[in-house]
Amino acid sequence: MSPYVAAEDLSMFGHDPWWLVVVKAVFCFAFLMVTVLFSIVWERKVVAWMQLRIGPNRHGPWGMLQSLADGVKLMLKEDLIVKRADKVVYVLAPIVATVPAFMAIAVIPFGPAGNEVSIFGQRTTMQLTDLPIAMLYILAVASIGIYGIVLAGWSSGSTYPLLGGLRSCAQMISYEIAMGAAFASVFLYSGSMSTSTIVEQQQDRWYILLLPVSFVLYVITMVGETNRAPFDMPESEGDLVGGFNTEYSSIKFALFMLAEYVNMVTVSAVSTTLFLGGWRAPWPISTFWEGANHGWWPMLWFVLKVQLLLFFFIWLRGTLPRVRYDQLMKLGWKVLIPVSVTWLMLVATVRTLRNENYDFADIFLYVGGGALALLVLSFVVDMFRNGGKSAPAPAEPAGFDPMAGGFPVPPLPGQELPPVPRRRSRQERELVVSGGTDTVSDGSRDGKEASDG
């Protein structure tokens, strides 16, 4: 086996008594719920601070119980089911969207696998379980959640929820390809898909330093995966009236909101595990304090990193405007996917040369020379693609009738709306109303003067 491939040791998992497994599962569920309740209040507080507002300040100290009050209010509201809805699918859709969001946390390590803690006198790891293909498990359960949104849009029996659900499906396909390529770069460096092994491999240097492009790609794709601003196309209120959850109310609407925030916590935990050293203490602390990565302290560092990424979500929402849907798809297919695949090829090349015991200088020379040769080749191809011929003159845009289908539609790129007839000025409208003499329009005079003539 290559020295750069990690040897997986998952023997410490699967030996807990059944009651301890239940306790750890309840802890994971409670951790997500408490983090969601805090994140909702924190988001409203931070955005209010950015916009020079007060934010929630009525329920509980400093308004910290506002999200709990909102949850109770939603549970007590009247639950409606629209007449044209497919009732079975309509009810199951929020559950399908919510349950997979909780499942991914099962393989996230809150602490080192080799450093067991005591829970009711029983020594155990700070992780519910781990798998040799834990990251594939996370991708699988994340992909299931999108079915809840698509089914919610379809089962509502309404046009705009259906459009929101289809947008979610297209957005997930576009951004999960780049996300998978970002994951693959981590797999190549760590030699494993196990979450605990990936964190162990970051003992000397976090992967955010070794794989910065993969980190940036994952951060962008995780915003798109969670349907958060500026990529909140499935529920853009401006053009869909609310999106896939338009026809939902009460507890079913609350489940969709819960799934969104739980997904935010989950992708932040995955980003922490893959790129930010997981439960490891930051660099200045880990150097002068030997016990920083032992006992219950790793959970503190993990929670702080997750909260930092949640603040990044909030910062984006308070800063960037929503993009258009064509911009969203162009970013996914024409930018993120080519960049992620090219970066994956570079990472694979570097790992192969490292496994062959090449020096860093030789690797830099080979990889840099290959990248430079590709750039020069693409430049030459662009210069001689047209064979020296001038570009043809653009064709005149075809006429566009916005009412051709019976209802108004917006123009596509390259199409122009017909000119709008000039409206009368305010003075002309007043003259027409008052019956003045200066009311000639389009070569004809008003009816009174015509009858007098």
**Uncertain regions: pLDDT < 50 for 5+ in a row?**
1-6, 439-453
Order of helices and strands: HHHEEHHHHHHHHHHHHH
Q: Compute the gyration radius: what is it?
A: 29 Å
> What count of helical segments does DSSP give?
16
User: Hey, roughly how much beta strand do the residues contain?
Assistant: under 5%
Form type: globular
Major sheet: order of its strands?
A: 1-2
Number of strands: 2
User: Mean pLDDT score, rounded?
Assistant: 84
Return the structural class: mainly alpha
Q: Indicate the percent of residues in helices.
A: 55-70%
Cα separation of the termini = 107 Å
Major sheet, described briefly? 2 strands, antiparallel
In short:
By secondary structure, this protein is mainly α. The chain is built from 16 helices and two strands.
Task: Provide tags for this entry.
single chain; 453 residues; 16 helices; disordered N terminus; translocase; transmembrane; disordered C terminus; mainly alpha; transmembrane helix; EC 7.1.1.-
